[in-house]
Amino acid sequence: MNPLVSIIIINWNSWQDTIECLKSVLNIKYSHFNLIVVDNGSIDDSIEKLEQYSSELGLNSSGIFLIKNPKNYGFAQGNNIGINYALKNLDPDYILLLNNDTVVDKNFLAQLVKTGEENPKNAIIGPAVYYYGQKDKVSIVGGNLNLYTGMTNYPHLDTHDPGIKSEIDYISGCCLLIKKSVIENVGLLKQQYFLYYEDVEWCYRVKEHDYRIIYQPAAKIYHKESPTSKNPTGVYYLTRNRFWFMKEYSNKCQYPIFISLSFLYFLYHMLRYVKSRKLTSALYHGMRDGIKGP
Description:
The chain is α/β, with parallel strands linked by helices and 294 residues long.
């Protein structure tokens, strides 16, 4: 029998995206999976719509489980709640984190699981991620991080060539398959990150345990992306969490160089955001809180 996969999808005030995502997942060729939808304290009619959709399919008998959080716990804790539910109740071989604003190819999960089964060291596997609106153009699949600068090289970004299967530093949390045995060994996502860089940190922690992070372009999904650079919440957490991550994973030579370059980054973006007090405030507070640490 194929390995069992628990797919975890976070919903927050976006039931339309979630249901479109669910419909695509329920149409895949790999059949040995269940779905856990974690609602992160939505204040719209998400719960009602998701319950209605689940009941139409046959709740639980269709392998869909709905968890209702009382508030927005963020990406990391929301997924951890789903992971803990799966590990305690469903006994999966793999956990898949999947953004609700994605649509998946029919073969994506079969390709991810196949890659995981090829080698015990293949711990985290991710697909080629394409833009939802430009289905032949590659978006962010993960990346290779420079621990001197804190900057990421994104393989194949904005090209029409997804490349070949390869080992990279991290897989994007928008679609990330991880073995249950690895989670039991290295732990869950770090909840203090709340939003952004929790996937990067998880992958680096996994690599420290001598596992591999694999990009598999034969698996395909399509992602609706929002511009983080124009979102104060996104600017704050990306800035803060970059410092937290670099403080933990760069060495004594790398971190001072990163700090020095970060002030140039700060000045550049302060000029870039000069017309928006919310964005400049988010950048300042993100850098301040990042340097202070968790």
